[in-house]
Amino acid sequence: MGSPLARFSVTVDDGHLADLDAVARALRDSGMQVDRVLGTLGLITGQAPADARSTLLAVEGVTSVDEQLRVQLPPPDAPVQ
User: Fold this and answer.
1) Tens-digit pLDDT profile for residues 9-67
2) Phi then psi for 28, rounded to 5 degrees?
3) CB 5 within 8 A of CB 47
4) The dihedral of CA 68, 70, 76, 79: what is its sign?
5) Three-class secondary structure of residue 60 per DSSP
6) Is residue 72 part of a domain?
7) SS3 for 80?
8) More confident residue, 18 or 72
9) What is the pTM assigned to this prediction?
10) Which of 8, 37, 54, 70 has its CA at a distance of 20 to 30 angstroms from the CA of residue 26?
């Protein structure tokens, strides 16, 4: 069984913004399931094995790979803690 999936936000450097789709393809080839390509922000989001951060960071044009933290709020009628 492989590593569990984690959600990542990948920041693309200014020099590769014009070819964001090529960076997204390279991330897919590196094992990332790309969910969104946000061209105006230079961000690509998706899921990949939790231990794939260094592999994604090695993709040409990538400046950072940050794991997205998941926050879950209690329902409005839950007691205050």
Assistant:
1) 999 999 999 999 999 999 999 999 999 999 889 999 999 999 999 999 999 999 999 99
2) -60, -45
3) yes
4) negative
5) coil
6) no
7) coil
8) 18
9) 0.81
10) 70
